[in-house]
Every structure is written in C-alpha cells, then in structure tokens.
Amino acid sequence: MALEKINHPYLTAIRRTDLSVPVRYLLRHDLLKGRILDFGCGFGYDTDELKQRGYDITGYDYYYRTEYPEGKFDTIFCVYVLNVLEPYAQAEVMMNVSNLLSPKGTAYFAVRRDLKEEGFWLHAIYREYTYQCNVRLPFLSLDRNSSYELYQYNHFNKLPRQEGEKCPFCRLSRRVEVICETATCVAFYDGYPVSPGHALIIPKRHVASYFDLTNHEREAMNVMLQYVKQKIDERYHPDGYNIGINVNEAAGQSVFHVHMHLIPRYEGDVENPKGGVRGVIPEKQRY
C-alpha cells in the first residue's frame, strides 16, 4: 500500500551540539539585540545556548515548544523553517514573525541552498513524508554560500524610500502600525479609520486595479485577510465586518494602488446597518 503524502515537517528538527551557522553569523556581527525570539526553534539548542550566554531569548516551535510568544521582539530569527513548509504554511510563518516584530525591530530568515530536488521525500528513519523546497525572498541578503542564505527583514514602512516616489502606499508612513507581512503583501491599520481596527491590505507591487493583480497576488491578499481578521478579533472584538475594494474613480478609488479595506462593525455604530455595502449608493441601501 502506498504511503499518503502528508507533510511531517517536525521530522526535520535536528538535535544540535553547536550553534547553527546562521546564528553564529548573527553573533559574529553583533546582530542579536534586545528581546530575542527563535521562531521555529525545533529542539531549542540555539535558544538554550544563547540563554546561557546571557541573552534575553524565547524559543517557540509549533511541535516542540508550543507556548506561543507574547508581546513584541526586537530581534527574531527563523532558521531553516521555510524550506520544509508548503506555501500556505510559509505565508503563515512570515505573517506571525512580522506581527511579533517590534516596529523598529529586525528579523532574519535563514534558508537552505543545498536542496537538489523540490517535493515530498520519504524520511529514511521514520518512513513519513516531509516536504522540501527552495525559497527566495525579496529581502536584503546578508550572507550566502552553497549551503544556506540569510535574509534580513524590516517592516515594509521602515525600508529606504525610492527617490521621487509619490504613491502613499509605496512610501507607506513610518507611523502606521504594520499588522503582518509576506513576500507579496502587507497589512496595516488605516491612518484614517472608519471604525476601531479598520485595516488595509495591499500588494507590495504598485498596481492600480484589483483586476490587474496576478492570481498569486490575489490569493496572497485573501490568505492575509483571514490572518488580519483574527488579529482584529483578538484586539477589538467587533460584531461584524465589511470587506471592500474600490476600483477606478467612479467607484470611489482615490489612491491608485490596490487596497482592500477590512472594516470592523459594532452593534449600534449606525442606526440601521441593513444593506451593508449596498450603501455605496445610499438610496439603494435599504430594500
């Protein structure tokens, strides 16, 4: 009987006896600052060794150290995690890391560069399937060799500005609170909220119309929508939501960079909410 190809990424955790190569790089270049999180720490050797050396560090792993971290962190590193996850799980890790990172913090993603084939492989010892893939990120590459690559991530609105850039979303205000980010999209709280928790989700690529996005960009926005809704629920506890995208000036679009509104709604915030988004044409709202 053929084994079903279900991913078991926990089987890739290694019981180390020395610090991982990416963490040694971060130590050597004095990049481990403030409150530190080892996201996807596996059995936790890097975490425990750095703690013994006096660093303020927390380790989290979905399988081995399952208490989800609280608060914000000044430095986060994620070592050899993304390579053994399928795309949706990769996006979830990146959203979690960006959400846990303090506004002025820095995260580091280490990925393998020695993978010869992508796909499922049968673990030689456990006889369970694990997935592996090559990962390329649109972030600053700090170090690379034939075995690994180390990327530096900072929040989208903290990156250097392109000279002459006029789009307010491409030069996103440094004051806005970023909720989460992936390689493709970023979500943040609206600077002029309609209601508490009003959030925007945008693609990083500058494109005016939702209908001109790639399939990948549209899917990435929808994946992020679910995550952002969860974070708004946790903080604001709304009673409902409106979701909307304006396309072209006739439909009210004023910033010509695609943006999805996620607007929390609360009992009693309007006299009669019936009709919801039909209210974009007020006389058609009630029917």
TrEMBL record:
PROSITE patterns xrefs: HIT_1, HIT_2
Residues in HIT domain copies: 165-272
Binding site residues for substrate: G252, Q253, S254, V255, H261
Coiled-coil residue windows: none
SUPFAM superfamilies xrefs: HIT-like, S-adenosyl-L-methionine-dependent methyltransferases
InterPro entries assigned: AP-4-A_phosphorylase, FHIT, Histidine_triad_CS, Histidine_triad_HIT, HIT-like, HIT-like_sf, SAM-dependent_MTases_sf
Active-site residues per Swiss-Prot or TrEMBL entry: H259 (tele-amp-histidine intermediate)
Motif (Histidine triad motif): 257-261
GO molecular function, one term: nucleotide binding
Pfam families, A to Z: HIT, Methyltransf_23
Keywords: Hydrolase, Nucleotide-binding
Source organism superkingdom: Bacteria
Protein name in UniProt: HIT domain-containing protein
Organism field: Marseilla massiliensis
